Amino acid sequence: MVHDQIVNVFMLRFANIEMLWLLSTIPVFIVAYIFYTRRKRRQLEEFGDRELVESLMPNASRVRPAVKFSIVMVALALLITAAARPQFGQTEHSEKRQGIEAIVALDISNSMLAEDVAPNRLDRAKQMLSKLMDNMVDDKVGLVVFAGDAFVQLPITCDYVSAKMFLNSISPNLIKTQGTAIGQALSTSIRCFGEQSDASRAIILITDGENHEDDAVAVAQRAKEAGIKVLVVGIGKPEGTPIPIPGTNDYIKDRQGNVVVSKLNEEMCREIAQAGGGIYVRCDNTNTATKAIQKELDTLATQEIETQVFTDYNEQYQSFALIALLLLIIDFFIFNRKNKALSRLDIFGEEKLNGQSPIEN
């Protein structure tokens, strides 16, 4: 999404700063005008005797064309400035947001490449999470990825666009250490929540539960005691399937050369969910898991989670456009030649120009 660029210039802000580049055309117009008037003056001097030519054009004016040109240039500068959307002053207001805080702990170990759900476990998990984010409005979401290690992929945020962007970039290559450190992932997720909040909190753990390495049940119990509900999504099938090697037609093998069969460890997933005070649901090729998790999130009480202060800048382009319009109206009523009815007013001081009659129109 290209957003409007905001630039500070001595307390003046422009929402479309790139439009100001058009101001560089004004010097070009000025140079062209000077060249035109000098060329016209030379042509008149070549036409005949100056005094005779002046007597033949008593209503010609040297000042009026220059005044009209100046007015047009100023109006053009004002219109360009208006197009750049100048903004002065500011107003502040507070907005209260209500929702839940959720951290997604996503397993990205190699076993998540198994294809017992389409297109594979990891991509199916991404699809499910994307649908969950589509239903979020005032909720906060963060993303933790794990295999043998765990780290924060995205700190907790309300920016769902960034969340989806990070989600789409996830692959097993992010973590070199293989394994399924669920306990470490849950501990990292708990730390992501930061300071105590009145908002309801939940960890959405998505894993196949295979090669479980640490005491995830104890960490889930600790999360429950901290007021954090642990929802577990098991992805895959208990009967298992081989793990393909990306870019080849082969499968991952163990040290003895046997094809590794990855199985969903539902028993472990249920134990973690029970210890964390949440639910366990298995993700397949339907939307059952998505609906179950969404329903559980909807039951969580929504409390105020954030008060944001927004600054609105007052648009001032109307003033510039109005002044430009007035100048153009004035220019319309100024004639290139002298008006006999108004000549006695000598508005432009033409009679004082050394007592000479102008020769340009």
Which features would summarize this protein structure in a list?
361 residues, alpha/beta, Rossmann fold, 2 domains, 6-stranded mixed β-sheet, 4-stranded antiparallel β-sheet, 10 helices, 22% strand, elongated, disordered N terminus, disordered C terminus
Descriptive overview:
The chain is α/β, with parallel strands linked by helices and about 350 residues long. It folds into two domains: about 5-90 and about 315-350, no CATH class; about 100-300, Rossmann fold (3-Layer(aba) Sandwich). Helix content is about 35%, strand content about 20%. It contains ten helices and twelve strands. The strands form three sheets. A six-stranded mixed sheet has the order 6-5-4-7-8-11, sandwiched between helices. The chain is elongated and about 110 Å long.
> Could you state the oligomeric state of the chains shown?
single chain
Strand neighbour order, sheet with most strands: 6-5-4-7-8-11
CATH class of the largest domain: Alpha Beta
Give the beta-strand count: 12
Number of helices: 10
Supply the number of structural domains.
Answer: 2
Main sheet properties: 6 strands, mixed
